[in-house]
Amino acid sequence: MSNLVRLIGITVVGMIYAGSATAATVSCMFMSETQITKDGEWLKTETDFMKLMDIFGDGLELPLENSLLGQLDTQEPFLAGETDRGKVYLMGSEMGVEGKNISIEGNVITIYDGMCDINFG
Length: 121
Known about the structure:
By secondary structure, the protein is α+β, with helices and mostly antiparallel strands.
């Protein structure tokens, strides 16, 4: 009987842990790339869709933790996570979810701007 109770306990804890980690996935399509220096000098902005496709493929996907979902309603930017391409910030708005992928290499800050979808399940 004690083995059955232990197995049920482990199963319940596993289900709680798995369900609380991420509730959704964020999918972002980026429409522009802007580069500025750390001193604030605007270097360039590109809207070359093919270049962005080469960089991100079909878009960027990132798991979104439960604790971050409520921040979409604040309409303020927040750090949603990091990828090998930099930090991903999201902001809920009346138009949907805006996303920015920001990276720093040397003296250059690169910002990719786009719109994101939140997928549950």
